[in-house]
Specification:
The chain is α/β, with parallel strands linked by helices. 42% of the residues lie in helices and 13% in strands. It contains 23 helices and 15 strands. The strands form 4 sheets. A 5-stranded mixed beta sheet has the order 12-11-15-13-14. The chain has a 4-stranded mixed beta sheet with strand order 2-1-3-4, with helices on one face. β3 (78-81) and β4 (85-87) form a beta hairpin. The protein starts with 6 loop residues before the first helix and ends in a 5-residue tail after the last helix.
């Protein structure tokens, strides 16, 4: 792999990659990521490759292991290009027919197509399936066209052109000004403007500055960060390199958990390839800018997603939060100015540099710009990653994209923001998903959306989240450590038919104390699921306590006394 010494040489490499590719040559894209491997994608890939060899088509058809096209419930998925024909639930036994009938014969196999459950219509092309048609996949749309382990695939779709633009045509101050004008906000939940954070870090006086990509993900039901990094790691690296150039940082880290080995592997591969091409390391593209990016394996605890705990873990200390006396942009990793951004934030940067802040500003709402990627899971027909413009309603996500609730069950609520988030009941389905609207109703924007149906016991679900948080709490501060234990003890009694009058008031009192006195975001936010559920589903708590009845028929100790 030749080292590239200038932007002009990069463009020559890109031309060389494209010249070897025939856009009309058929290729079959099939995801080779963690989720679909579990569905048997490996055996489908082997069967397709074997059939291509058997029919002596090696020089006429390619099989590409790609990033995830999502639609997780319907895998294994095979997409046949250039037509974009989408086959769902493919088995190894289907391989001979796919090659003979579709690739060679140009005939569609009806039984492998998506069937619209409402109209019974068969849909041929991927982009016409409602799950895909109702999204705006700016960040994940290329995942099913590239091999995440191939930097040439990324170059072929225009990858690293934003880096060239930034290094060649923009000063660091101009890059920051563009990001500020775009109003890109951090995707970790708080929604702080990225450009302002970058500017503060650039203005901090220090010889050494750091950037960090937070790829830590431990929320139940969330899988956005690992899937995005598995599927297109170079897009995140490109955003990080541009950010480091703007801030003046020469060291960067991707903070990721080793419980996601494919995420780590694809990130390592992408970093190595970028180094070999001269896109990382000394004198990047001959422009005099140096940057090293390494992987930092997280401590495995959910609390390590909190910024001070994250940096403590990276420094080799116990991943516990500390009281924030300084901003990380002034005193962060190893006491040096540090810019910490979520993976989705970094992934937006190349788009903004390439297409401009004005273009980006047209997507989303007045103050929440761009798109947001969520992992849609729970009681939903179509699970997987979904990417929608800010301001899209929950109703559109759950019903138009997610396909509604399986088995014609009644929708109950969406749990948003992970274990520190809250519930969106049916009466709020038309709430636009953006930072402002969620904040107004006391919710935060997290990566996961968990859909619940009528047969979900909200009390039991809240107990699950509090047990998760209790296990993940570092235990450093008493309000979090003891508050969670006491709330779980009361909820255990309620779900076992031992609840008593005054329990709800006691839960609210403990939750309020924890919100006010806990040390970090985990402790302060841990009461959110409880308080949100009491706001919208108080009658379920009262039924458990006063009638010794679980309306959803979930709590075993109460089922025997539940009227049929």
């Amino acid at each position: 792999m030749p080292r590239i010494n200038s932007p002009a040489e990069l463009e020559e490499i890109r031309k060389g990659v494209l010249s070897k590719r025939n856009p009309d040559k058929p290729f079959l894209a099939i995801y080779d990521g963690t989720g679909c491997i579990g569905l048997g994608n490996d055996s489908v890939i082997s069967a397709l490759e074997k059939e291509i060899k058997k029919q002596d088509l090696q020089n006429k058809v390619d099989v590409k292991k790609t990033g995830c096209p999502e639609f997780g419930e319907k895998g294994p998925i095979v997409i046949i290009y250039p037509e974009g024909i989408c086959y769902l639930g493919v088995t190894p036994e289907d391989a001979p027919e796919i090659i003979s009938q579709t690739v060679v014969g140009k005939k569609v196999i009806d039984r492998l197509l998506y069937t619209d459950p409402h109209t019974g219509e068969k849909i041929v092309h991927q982009q016409e399936i409602p799950f895909y048609k109702n999204q705006l996949p700016l960040l994940i749309g290329d995942n099913n066209k590239i091999d995440p382990k191939s930097i040439d695939d990324y170059l072929a779709i225009g990858g690293y052109s934003a880096l060239v633009n930034a290094l060649l045509n923009m000063s660091p101050e101009q890059v920051i000004a563009e990001i500020k004008q775009s109003n890109l906000r951090g995707r970790s939940g708080g929604g702080f403007p990225a450009g302002i954070k970058w500017e503060a870090c650039r203005n901090a006086e220090a010889e050494t500055k750091y950037i960090i990509c937070n790829c830590h993900e431990g929320d139940p039901g969330a899988f956005v960060d690992r899937r995005m990094m598995e599927g297109n790691p170079h897009s995140i690296l490109e955003g990080m390199i541009i950010g480091a150039y703007a801030i003046g940082a020469n060291e960067g880290y991707v903070f990721v958990g080793d419980e996601f080995p494919l995420t780590v592997e694809n990130t390592q591969t992408a970093i190595k390839q970028a180094e070999e091409y001269g896109l990382l390391g000394k004198n990047i593209l001959g422009c005099g800018f140096d940057l090293n990016i390494r992987i930092s394996i997280d401590g495995g605890g959910y609390v390590c997603g909190e910024s001070t705990a994250l940096m403590a873990s990276m420094e080799g200390r116990v991943g516990e939060p500390i009281t924030k006396y300084d901003h990380a942009t002034e005193r962060g990793l190893w006491a040096s100015p540090t810019d910490l951004n979520n993976l989705q934030t970094w992934a937006n940067v190349p788009l903004i540099i390439n297409r401009g802040a004005d273009w980006y500003g047209k997507i989303g709402t007045s103050r929440s710009k761009g798109t947001r990627v969520f992992s849609l899971a729970g009681m939903i027909n179509n699970s997987g990653l979904v990417e929608v413009p800010m301001g899209t309603t929950f109703r559109k996500i759950v019903f138009d994209i997610g396909g509604g609730i399986p088995g014609d069950k009644k929708f109950k609520a969406v749990q948003v923001g992970g274990p520190l988030g809250g519930f969106v009941p049916e009466s709020m389905l038309d709430l636009p998903v953006d930072f402002e609207e969620l904040t107004k109703v006391g919710l935060t924007m997290g990566p996961g959306l968990i859909v619940t149906a009528e047969n979900t016991c909200i009390v039991d679900m809240v107990k699950y989240f509090l047990k998760f948080l209790s296990n993940e709490s570092c235990g450093k501060c008493t309000p979090c450590r003891e508050g969670l234990r006491q709330m779980i003890k009361i909820l255990n009694n309620i779900t076992e038919g031992k609840g008593k009058k005054g329990d709800i008031a006691l839960l609210e009192m403990i939750a309020a104390a924890q919100q006010g006195a806990a040390l970090c975001a985990l402790g302060k936010g841990a009461a959110n699921p409880l308080l949100s559920s009491l706001k919208y589903f108080r009658d379920e708590y009262e039924a458990h306590i006063e009638q010794k009845r679980c309306p959803a028929l979930v709590c075993k100790e109460l089922i025997s006394s539940t009227p049929s």
